[in-house]
Design brief:
The chain is α/β, with parallel strands linked by helices and 384 residues long. It has a single domain (102-382), classed as 3-Layer(aba) Sandwich (Rossmann fold). The protein contains ten helices and eleven strands. A nine-stranded mixed sheet has the order 3-4-5-7-6-8-9-10-11, with helices on both faces. The longest helix is centred in the last third of the chain and has 19 residues, at 364-382. It is globular and about 55 Å long. The model is unreliable at 1-95 (pLDDT under 50).
């Protein structure tokens, strides 16, 4: 009889074909799916009401590439055939790490160049403050530096202080907002203090990767730049951050190995999924490009796990002190508890202090207590 491929089928051939089908004449490959906050009051600025930006919870389903099944061709004759070896499939390329992944931030190099003193900001008997600029990914980033007044050649420990969320619209933020009290306090107590404005803020250049990872990259470049500052002790670099600045601080803690101690005030969560849902709840809009790039925690949980400092707490090298107002309705105190508990579970040193009646920004006696506790904690770690 005649087969559909034009070959005569003998009874023996039919038997062979039936045997092939019984053994699995087709194979298929199932593809694997690839896988902020009101600013602290400062003495330089009136209270600001900021609208945190977020969007409806849109989701982007991961795209799976299907591979068509391979069909074994019909045998043309009964004659014995040479054993054929299927060609080796080329390996799939390793996808590039997302720039927001912690591992991607670890693989980057950081420099920051030279910290340039642009002009005098203020001067007291205790310190001299200047507006500064430095380099980050080809962008000029502005900020503030306070240097204690002391003998020529003296080296000081460094405190990097990271501000929280502000809109990047003109006039919504200026250097020192959300950091000025901390800058002055630690400078009076013998620390060189710095605050980066981050890209797109104040006098900084405009750049991509607004929010994350751009702001963390700007901080990590500043850490390298301050090591070269003449009066700075490169072996005594500390870090602290408020709100979104806490999120940036948490990122730096799991990327940079040279930091000695860290402080958090009303911090964002160490879990990127918590922060995503909070920004949705806060009622602005989350950048559509972000959702198209990363998806949501619902449909891409592994992506958000790799974005989260929480995932890498085992690598933290620094003791951490945490402060939270128990009436904070912006960054829930539960996030500070989660941070403390996860650090302790990873075998790290962490202390948490809560302040009754205080909200997102500590003020008055609560602020003074938090500063004194942080200074004592930092000095103890640094052996001062």
């Amino acid at each position: 009889m005649q087969g559909k491929n034009g070959f005569a089928k003998s009874p023996l051939l039919v038997v062979l074909l039936l045997l092939l089908n019984a053994c699995g004449g087709e194979s298929s490959l199932t593809p694997i799916a690839t896988i902020q906050a009101n600013p602290s009051q400062t003495i330089l600025s009136p209270p600001l009401v900021t609208t945190l930006i977020a969007t409806p919870n849109l989701s982007v389903a991961p795209t799976a590439t299907s591979v068509p099944p391979t069909t074994i061709p019909a045998l043309p004759t009964l004659a014995p055939t040479a054993t054929s070896v299927p060609p080796t499939a080329a390996p799939l390329p390793t996808p590039a790490l997302s720039p927001r992944y912690i591992e991607a931030l670890r693989k980057r190099t950081y420099n920051g160049g030279e910290i340039k003193l642009e002009r005098l900001y203020s001067s007291t008997n205790a310190y001299t403050a200047n507006l500064i600029t430095y380099q980050s990914d080809g962008l000029k980033i502005s900020g503030l530096i306070f240097v204690p007044n002391g003998p020529s050649g003296k080296k000081y420990p460094v405190a990097l202080i990271n501000h929280g969320f502000f809109p990047t619209t003109p006039g919504a933020y200026d250097s020192g907002w959300d950091t000025l009290r901390e800058l002055m306090f630690f400078a009076r107590n013998g620390y060189i203090t710095l605050a980066s404005d981050y890209r797109n803020y104040a006098r900084s250049d405009k750049g991509d990767n607004e929010l994350e990872p751009g702001y963390a990259i700007d901080l990590l470049n500043l850490i390298e730049a301050v090591k070269k500052f003449p009066q700075a002790d490169p072996n005594q670099i500390t870090i602290m951050g408020h709100s979104m600045g806490g999120e940036i601080t948490l990122t730096a803690m799991v990327v940079n190995k040279d930091l000695k101690v860290a402080g958090l005030f009303g911090t964002m969560s160490p879990d990127a999924a918590d922060n995503y849902y909070a920004r949705i709840k806060w009622g602005g809009r989350t950048n559509q490009k972000w959702i198209e790039t990363y998806g949501t925690p619902d449909n891409q949980p592994e992506v958000y796990r790799q974005m989260s400092p929480l995932t890498y707490f085992k690598d933290v090298k620094v003791p951490v002190i945490i402060h939270s107002g128990n009436n904070d309705t912006t960054t829930p105190p539960a996030w500070s508890v989660k941070t403390r508990d996860a650090l302790l579970a990873a075998g790290k040193k962490a202390e948490l202090y809560t302040y009754p009646g205080e909200g997102h920004s500590l003020n008055g006696v609560a602020f003074d207590q938090a500063m004194q506790r942080t200074l004592s904690f930092f000095n103890s770690v640094l052996g001062r």
